[in-house]
Amino acid sequence: MITSRQQRLAHWGETRQKGKRRFILVNGALAWGVSTALVWTMVMWLIAPEFEPLPNLLLALVMFPMGGMVWGWIVWASTEKEYLRRTGVDHR
To answer: For 1-92, where are the alpha helices, taking DSSP H only?
Structure first.
C-alpha cells in the first residue's frame, strides 16, 4: 500500500511513463468500466426481478467503459497536474 507522499509521487512517475492512453484504457475502460458493468449487472439482477441480465450486461459493457474513459482522463489530468506541481518536472 502506498502511504507517503513520496511513494505516491514515485508510483505516479512510473505510471505516467507508460502513457496517458494506456492509463485511460487499462485503468479507466477496463479496470473501472468492465468491473463496474459486471457488478452493476449482478446487483440489478438480484434486486430487480424483472431485470434482463444478458441484454443489460451487453449495454453496460459499452456504457460503463465509456464512462471509465472519462473517469480515467479526469484522474490522469488531476494527478498529472499535482505531480508536475510537486516535482517541477516538465510535462513535454
So the answer is: 5-18, 20-23, 35-47, 53-87
Best CA proximity match to 32, nearest among 72, 5, 79, 91: 72
- What is the per-residue pLDDT across 32-72, written as a single tens digit (0 to 9) for each? 999 999 999 999 999 998 999 999 999 999 999 999 999 99
Tell me what pLDDT residue 4 has. 87
Q: Whole-prediction pTM value? A: 0.84
Task: Give the separation between CA 29 and CA 64, rounded to whole angstroms.
Answer: 7
Contact 71, 36 (CB under 8 A): no
Rounded CA-CA distance 33/31 in Å is: 6
For the chain, the maximum distance between any two Cα atoms, rounded to a whole number of angstroms, is: 55
47 alpha-carbon distance from chain centroid: 26
Length of the chain: 92
Residue 88 pLDDT: 83
What's the CA gap between 50 and 60, in Å, rounded?
17
